Structures are given as structure tokens and as C-alpha cells.
Amino acid sequence: MQELIQQIKQLEELSNQLEVSEFERENTLKQVSAYTNQFINQLPVVKAFNEASKPSCGLEINNIKKSLHQLLEIYQKEVVEKGIIAASGGHLGYIPGGGIFNASIADFLAAVTNPYAGIFYASPGAVTIENEVIDWLKKVFDFPKSAVGNLASGGSISNLIALTAARDKHQIKNEKITKSVIYLSVQVHHCIQKALRIIGLEDVIIRYVELDEKHKMKIDVLEQLVENDKANNLNPFLVVASAGTTDTGAIDPLDEIATITKKNKLWFHVDAAYGGFFILTSKKALFKGIEKADSLVIDPHKGMFLPYGLGAVLIKDKEAVFHSNHYLANYMQDAQNDDLSYSPANVSPELTKHFRGLRLWLPLQLHGIEPFVACLEEKLLLTTYFRKKLVEMGFNVGPTPDLSVSYFWYPFKENENEQNKLLIDAIHKDGSVFLSSSIINEKFVIRMAILSFRTKLSTIDRALTMIKSSLEKYKKELFKTR
Ligand SMILES: *Cc1c(COP(=O)(O)O)cnc(C)c1O
Q1: Which pLDDT score is estimated for 339?
Q2: Which domain holds residue 332?
Q3: Residue 72 lies inside a defined structural domain of this protein
Q4: Phi, psi (rounded to 5 degrees) for 119
Q5: Which of 114, 288, 312, 368 is the most buried if burial means most Cβ atoms within 10 Å?
């Protein structure tokens, strides 16, 4: 016994290092605070993109202790200064968001206090905050209080949860799979196709519904497809619409789609990961019908400007969700709760989870909703401004966007696609703002996605100056080679 106690005490000396002293904590916080202040203060002047050809080095774990000071230096050089600076307002590629500071503080508080947010019994407070955030989202999108929801890591997992519920509601399994039909737009986010494979629906029939010139689903085509499939003894069960496609920001005609899905008893899913929060703006009318969806996905790490790591799903049919996600294990018996929808673990594949609700709850409580809405309206106007200026510079632009994603290309006289590709290469080399590219109707285009809370009028002016000089430099080089 004495020896056992001796051994434990010896180990304690080492293991105690994990509980750092108040003095060390103060010191750590001071260093991190200085570092983060410097990082944020420099954002307006540093590049938004640094082309990195090699992976970062010096990050391996080798059991040689380093000081926080050293590690912050390595982090700055090898992580922060490489690739896309996603926190920068100059990030106008893919779908940016920025990452508001108070959400990072919420993450810090959640991590230090570490409540167990998966099960109500374990942390009624944390789970209530998760559910308050979900209830707020239900109000924003006019979903009934009886709907269930979950705060997941992002849009991909949120879509996965929704599509699984659609599958289970319609009992798409066994021989039914190859006869069942799903209707998508070609502009749907690829996480939908991924999710279908993951949930065993790889072999369903997918109909890509033709789009109109504004990249929205043609409603008469959808209706005709469903009718044909029914007449051919197939099993249509799901329509996936987008409220803000990733490539062009288009919102499908949700209200009309809802009429078709209702009439034909199909599950109506809306992926609003990017566009959803614009329902809070002057664009509200475009979202008419979203409240009729059976399931809905929204990404607060896009339209609420949070740091990466928060997507949300709302689903009206609880039972369909519980079918896959609720399970009783003996070791969980203390946690049984009458209202299943109360515990996040019953609505998600996750059991233990990061307490994500706090990162939206705290900023909303601190700032109120107005600055968020103003920020979204600002992005819409900046998009209009950017497009107007590009046209003045001789660029062609895509159709007037519903939201804040659009595209443009320079009308080179020959080899338009290849030359626009070279132009984006020049833009990436410059890096003062970051834009991405895409292929739309076989045309190589430069995409702009304005959604970071840090993107301001001055950012767009910087982008315009950079595009202009890239174009000029590029034209000169082209001239030289001829
Ligand atoms: C971003 C996005 C997704 C994927 O979401 P993640 O958070 O990246 O997993 C899905 N759908 C749309 C429309 C998106 O814009």
C-alpha cells in the first residue's frame, strides 16, 4: 500500500504540470492577447493570400518543449502567413465570413468551463443555450416551435443530418433505393452528393433540373420530371433546393417548389448554408416559401461571420431524425429524458460535442442583431458597387445576383477561358485580395463572394486597384510574347 501511494505521488509531480498556475495563466493570456491584437490590427494592411507551394515545416511533434513565445512565432510564420488569410476582409473567394472576436471568446469560455453539451442531464444550462440558439433560428425562418434542430460543425454535416431524415421518413432502403428519385440543381453544393453516398443512397436516381439564365431551377421542368417519374413507376421522394448557391448565390423559387413537393408528397430540403441569413435583410421576399421546407440548413460561420465550426439544421419531422440518431445504451441510462428533442445527441451522429451554441449566443447577446443585419445589407451594396466598377473597367459580369456572390470575366478577343485563367493567376500572385474562380456554363469566370464582416468599401477599392494592375501587367506580358 505504502509503495502504491509513493508511486502515485511521484506521478502527481509530473501530471500536475497540466494544471498551470494562476501566474502562468495570466502570463499566457497576456501573450495571447498581445498576439491577437497585433494580428487583428495588421489585417487591413497585410495580403489576403500568400501562394504557398510547400507544406509548412517545423510543426512536427517531437517531445522537445518550446515556449509559448516560440510557438506563437512558428504559428505566425507557418500557419497564419500561408495560404488564404481567412480572417482578412480581403478574402473574397469561396464563401468567407471572417470570424468575429466575441465568438472566439465564447469558444474560450466554453473550453475552459467545458460543459457537456450533448445531453441535457449532463449540462442543462449548456443544452438550453444550444436550444435557445436553435429556437432563435426557428423564429428567423418561421419554422414551428415543434421542429428539431442541431448545431453541427458546418453545412456538410447539417445537410447529412437532414438528408438522412428524408431517407428514413420515406424508408429508402433495400430494393427501393434504385427506384427512388432525387431532384437537384447542377448548382447544388457538392456536400449533397457526398452525403448521399455516405448514407447509402449512391444508387438512387438523380435528376439534375435544368436552370434558367439566373441559375435557378426551372419549375415547369421539375414538375414534368416528377410526373414522368411517377408515370414510370419510380419513387420520387426528395427535392433539394438552394437558397444561395455557392457559385452564383442564386435562390431557387422556393415557394413554387414547395407547392410541387406538397402536391407530390416529396421531402423538401433547402440548403441555405451560404444565403440563409440574408432573410434578415431587404432581400426577405426572395426567401418566400423557405418556411415550408421539411428541412433547412444554415451556416452561422458564413452569414453570422463566426469563426469556422458552426452549421445548423432544422427539421420538422422529429421522428424521422430520431430513427437514426436516438439510441439507448445501458451506460446512458441516467440520462434518459422524456423530451428526446432536448438533447443534441438525439438529433446528430455526435454524442460528445464542442459546446457550439455559445459562440453564436454570446455575440448575439453582446451586440444585439442590428449590427449583423447592417453588415449583411452592407455586403449586398458592396456587391453592387464592385460589379458597377468592374463594368466601367471593361469586364463582363454575370447576371445581377440575388445576394453577394457574383462572377466576372474579361472579354479577351481570343482564347477567353485560357486568358482569364492567366488573369486569376496574376491576381493570386498579387494576393492583396483573394478571389477564386469557377466554370459556369463552360466559361472560366472569376468569382467574388462578399461576406466577411471585415470587407468594407476600402477593401473593394483595393480589389479594384489590384485587378486593374493585374490586368495591365498581364496585358503587357501578353504583348511581349507576341
Ligand atoms: C458552404 C456550403 C456548404 C458546405 O458547408 P460547410 O460548412 O463548408 O461544411 C453547403 N452548401 C452551401 C450552399 C454552402 O455554401
Answers
A1: 76
A2: 107-367
A3: no
A4: -135, 130
A5: 312
Specify the residue with its C-alpha closest to ligand 1, atom 12.
273
Residues 351 and 376 in one domain: no
Encode pLDDT of 186-245 as tens digits. Answer: 899 999 999 999 999 999 999 999 999 999 999 999 999 999 999 999 999 999 999 999
In a domain, 10, yes or no: no
pLDDT in tens, 286-307: 999 999 999 999 999 999 999 9
Same domain (yes/no): 335, 386 = no
Q: How far is CA 64 from CA 58, 60, 212, in A?
A: 12, 10, 59
d(CA 472, CA 397) in angstroms, rounded, equals 19
Instruction: Ligand 1 pocket test: pick from 185, 271, 404 the residue with the most ligand atoms within 8 Å of its Cβ.
Output: 271
Q: Can you tell me the distance from the alpha carbon of 320 to that of 374, in angstroms, rounded to the nearest whole number?
A: 37
Domain count, the chain: 2
**pLDDT confidence of residue 331:** 75
Contact 427, 390 (CB under 8 A): no
> Is the domain of 359 the same as that of 381?
no
Confirm whether 36 is domain-assigned: no
Q: What is the CATH number of the domain that holds 163?
A: 3.40.640.10
The CATH number of whichever domain residue 465 belongs to comes to 3.90.1150.10
Q: Is 299 in the pocket of ligand 1 (CB under 6 A)?
A: yes
pLDDT < 70 regions, the chain: 337-338, 478-482
Q: Which pTM does this prediction carry?
A: 0.95
- Determine if ligand 1 sits within 6 Å of the CB of residue 189: yes
Any atom of ligand 1 within 6 Å of the Cβ of 155 = yes
Mean pLDDT of the chain: 95
**What is the model's pLDDT at position 353?**
96
Ligand 1 in reach of 269 Cβ (< 6 A): no
Amino acid 209: pLDDT: 97
